[in-house]
């Protein structure tokens, strides 16, 4: 029987009419695991079991579809199961029966046959954790909160502690580079200064330890041997070593990122040749990107628990539209919905002398299967292709998009196999292609000069008709492309 098992009962509602209850428990690494039969809804009651005690009382007042964290004095509100689970893991992983807010606790309720009642649940949680633990760093990035969830296991070996420490350092440096946009030279300065500061502190600690050991009757030789042994097992000193540490240079950091994290490298694709030689674009394989995304537990949770709008009179999402609902391919809710986006950007000063030399075209995508409030987050947007703007204009979009279109056709017709958490092939295709007016006109083959006569990509109205619109109803037909 687990040390702590909490059973959460949910109220029924129109959105999730079949939901009954959920359970959350500490797994073997101290994380909170929550399971429920369908979705995540309002918490009605809290029931805790620990050996011979049980407490039951309403956990929160109804506030829309939110629940309140029951741990004192936290007052956080949640709507999503994965957010609630990661919050408990990060903030309250050491919870006990005394941690709960007393307004949710009733000491008068006793426990009968607790071990028999919850032994099956305990086994279910253990099996679930073993099945869902994925490869990689051992850490999870919760895209709901954009934070790292690290496994905490009191019985970890020294190798596990070293791996966790190295992963934490790597994520720290990688976030500085990718999210905070800190230059590599600045990151290198931070690495060296952290190493120097810790080395100074360590030398001072060695002197103090040696003096204390000698005062306890040890000889200088034995004290030195002990200090050498301690230094050899000082994980922080090894991680911050500016001479031999794994993060001592930009090159070594990049090697560590690629070897430890789910790195999907781009492929160099030849798209043509000009007087200067071969011209290349860069493409990241769609199948590998999808497989990498599904290694994240929060992605898999959103895929398995989609938000369904049962009110036909309300439009909440692109999936509520008639075009999506009438598409036979997406009648199956398990299909992946790729929302493609393309745009041009400049990697130099846009008003400088080199503004036209290094203009790039970036092609990104996110998944319509993500919850709407997650689609615009950087962590869920994946880069799929890059090329120079002038190369795209010279050789055409068909050549640049060739590999992506090939993968999309295979994704739609044959499916992708060996995706984490998916039995059998996973199917999907592009649901929308987004971009600004100029880029959308280029991809669609429309007029790119907005001073032209037929400047609209949605209808066949001429520019000369603008004086009568919208005074008179439209008489021109809409485009079919």
UniProtKB/TrEMBL annotation:
<dbReference type="InterPro" id="IPR013087">
    <property type="entry name" value="Znf_C2H2_type"/>
</dbReference>
<protein>
    <recommendedName>
        <fullName>C2H2-type domain-containing protein</fullName>
    </recommendedName>
</protein>
<feature type="domain" description="C2H2-type">
    <location>
        <begin position="69"/>
        <end position="93"/>
    </location>
</feature>
